[in-house]
Amino acid sequence: MSTTTGFAATASVDPRKLPRLLAGVSLGALVLTLVGWAISPRQFAFSYLTAWVFAVSLAVGGLFWAMLHHVTGAVWSVVIRRIPEQLAFVIVPLSLLALPLLLNLRHTHGWIEHPDAVWEKKKAYLNQPFFIGRTIFFLAAWVWMAWRLRRWSLRHDETGDPSSLRRMRWHSPTGLLILGVTTTFAAFDWLMSLDWHWYSTIFGVVYWAGAIVGSLAVITLFALALRATGLTAITVEHLHDLGKLLFGFTIFWAYVSFSQYFLIWYANLSEETPWYIQRMTGSWRALTLFLAVGHFVLPFLWLLPREAKRTPWRLGVAAGWLVFMHFVDLYWQVMPVLHNEGFSLSWLDLTASVGLTAAVFAWVAHSLQSNRPLPVRDPNLAASMKHHNE
Amino acid sequence: MMNLQADALTSSIEMRTDAHGSEGHPAASGDYLSGQHTLADVTETISRMTETPAPRWWWYGFILSGLVTLGGIFAAVYLIVTGVGVWGLNQPVGWAFDITNLVFWIGIGHAGTLISAILFLFRQKWRTSINRFAEAMTLFAVICAGIFPTIHVGRIWMLWFFAPLPNDQAIWPQFYSPLVWDAFAIGTYFTVSLLFWYLGLVPDLATLRDRAKSRTRQVIFGILALGWRGSVRHWRHYESAYLLLAGLATPLVVSVHSVVSMDFATSVLPGWHATIFPPYFVAGAIFSGFAMVLTLMIPMRQLFKLQDYITDRHLDHMAKVLLATGLMVGYAYGVEFFSAWYSANETERFVFLNRAFGPYGWSYWIMVSCNVLVPQLFWVRRFRTNAWVLFVASILVNVGMWFERFVIIVTSLHRDFLPASWGMFVPTWVDVLQMVGAFGLFFLLLLIFVRLLPAISIAEMKLLLPHESMPGQPSAAASAAGTSTAGGSTAGASITSLSSRWPEKRTLVARFSSVASLSEALRRLADRGIAGVDAYAPYPAHELIAAMKLRRSPLPWFTLAGGLFGLTLGLLGMWYIHGVEYPIIVGGKQPGTWQGFVPVAFEMTVLFAAFATVGGLLWKCGLPKLYHPLFGVKNFERVTDDAFFVSVEEADETTARLLADAGAVELMPVEEVA
Fold first, then answer.
1. Looking at CA atoms only, how far is residue B321 from chain A in angstroms?
2. Which residues of A touch B268 (CB under 8 A)?
3. A4, part of any domain
4. ipTM given for this complex
5. Lowest mean pLDDT among A15-24, A176-185, B133-142
6. Global confidence as pTM
7. Does a structural domain hold residue A29?
8. Given B621, B636, B651, which residue is the final one in a domain?
9. Considering the domain boundaries, does residue A223 fall inside one?
10. Distance, in angstroms, between B274 CA and closest chain A CA?
11. Helices B485-499 and B653-662 meet at what angle, rounded to 10?
């Protein structure tokens, strides 16, 4: 009984109005951001890049979770499956929103306007036409996969045709493979090549890890919201599993992020360390510490007790916090390139990130309301609803 | 006197239930257990492997692997007596077969914990029939791995320098050295794996104790089983401990191969220094470990006729894991190659081109074909369930993974920075004999293991039996107890006739033949608020824990306390040694910098958390306790096979009637009270 009260309070706003409300917020923030484009294009380019890469990582993470469900043949997550499917589909509007990013590459990616001897050796890969072509290709691949998955899933609700389920199962392993490779190179392009002298072989994995945690946190938030509105069959047992995964992947993020830092710190090579030196000196140091504590230590301790994963408000706090920390992680990767003298928050950081994040939430909330929040004809639905830990 | 009366009561109840044919009801086939099985024949099939005389093939295998092991021992002794120079090592190739074999065996050792811990956490039930074997494999692989660095140090008698003791010149181990991290990581891994394995074995050791025909077996297994008696109160702590150890083993297994990868990746050598190394090595370790499990399980299931226990679905799942981890390894090869080019660093680019097209190019292509191409077969379902295809592929994967380590180590070293210092590595007979000898030792230990201990977890397999068709027909028992007046009155009558002679209150034990009837009895006892109740079962049935309304086990607090203690001890110890007692600058780092302490601090946390968990379990269960009055109760030895018991202290006649009504097969007072 007490488990739902925490969210019942927040759901006192009519949930049907929520998507419209969020869309309004998003639109307002994005209009302000466009004004910023005119005033301060360079700051805009970086703020928008951070916000967009963050939003895309949520969609890509949604795609990951939706396909992982089919690859592992999981039963417990059937009641949750619709959320990552809808989240993945956000890639459609986000692909169109890539335009401001691609138009401002010369501001963000220094190798375009400041080519040097190092760049000469990698220009076969790092050149504007190829870069834009790759971005379009990555987005197209993700749109294609998210669209197929969602279409099969929704069609299965109508027809109950087992071939839709078979298709989802059949295409998910190759889908994950494509996703793994494309996100790696997308992360190399959008984030790693901001500093084109620097490279780290684990960088793609670090991006996945962040996207997996961030999207799982968003999925958890929607699971809690659906539960509060009573539209779904999500029980405490499902929340417990989401909490365990959130806990586990937070550790995974810490593991890969620390591996990258630790090996670069230890070897102390002049090609690699500047990236970390910049982030560990001056006011950036404070943000680095905040990232380590906020993205790992706090959620680790918070989610460690069993009850934290089974109590909706406690899980909700962790999920909300991790969405925020995932943004901080990307911000920490991007912004020192622009503000190399020290941490400096711009109003554009706020409007761009609020604009795109609210758009993602509005889209998913709307999709969950206009379609069934449960795959009603999934043969494992009943088993999933009865799922019990232990 | 008492026994006579109890027997009268017993026989009347037995007559009733036996009419339903309580024992030996066939169970319907489960997903991961095909064919018709009962609790008793799960016990029988698995225990028999250790009880019957060894088959002929076993002796052939034993003698062959024994001879190969002797060859390895000869090579090792020859090397220790003569010096490391009898290996093919040289300048610039200072590491070759030795470290290749170390990393290879540590990798093999990862599958056990993966199957036992990670798949357990992910509720993959199919792990049940292979986890015991894979865990044993882990331990033996780590033993094989340990041989190589031990010998490689050259002066083997100086090995204690790794231990955190000041040596004879008052110098402590160097806690920023990845080799010291290795010693801690592998030591912790071996210890925790051993605890995990042993913990899983305890109920099965009790089964072997209770089945023992000879006094020697009874005493040996009796001591090893610690007096396990299947108490549901114990099972509750046991399950909690198992889950906690699984939770500890999961990050531990990841840390071990990450630390091994850091032997290379912390260096500045192109080809070794890559940030992707930790997860890449972990994926490779799981890949090779799974391949080795397949290589061994496929012949074993044939030789011991275990097709019902290790089904085609198991093979299918394992093939999928091979495919997935093979793709991860392939991803790492690709990203490394791309990054080498992208780095724009001439040496980095050269090293990778040399890997693929230099003098050792053939080994690179063996690696790529075996590790990336071969697993692609498993996109096709037919290949995943074909034992022959899997067997051959698993061997090829092991070959590929051995070459992966060889490629990483030798090709990165043999072209030194100056062309004048370039060289080649050619193995000597000592290298080869030691490598082969390690395989001999590994197979020898495994052969001994399958003869001495249950190679499949008996207690856990019983959990896979479908509950509704458990022997004992719960519906029949329930109807007899409740609605069927005829059955109820028979039992009731016999108790009434006994009641005039019912003695003072004493401990009463009742045998049940199914979980369902026992949990019904437990629920009724709990509803009446009767205290001093315990139940006993051959496997951890959750219904029983629920029916007894037991509180959650407090073991997580032990784990937490142990972990915090280990963390504090590790950090304070290293800070004192490195920052205060003997400050030393390594690699330009300030003495006492925290980063270098992370690996060892982590291992210490896990080690002490595991100790505290197992210690807490033994303490909460009051084990070891080799004798218990219950062991004297008739048929109680079947508690580790197919029987369920309940004991009630200070039971009166009403309690006895309640148990009889709930479907007890036998009622027996205990002479001594625990």
1. 10
2. 267-269
3. no
4. 0.92
5. A15-24
6. 0.89
7. yes
8. B621
9. yes
10. 6
11. 160
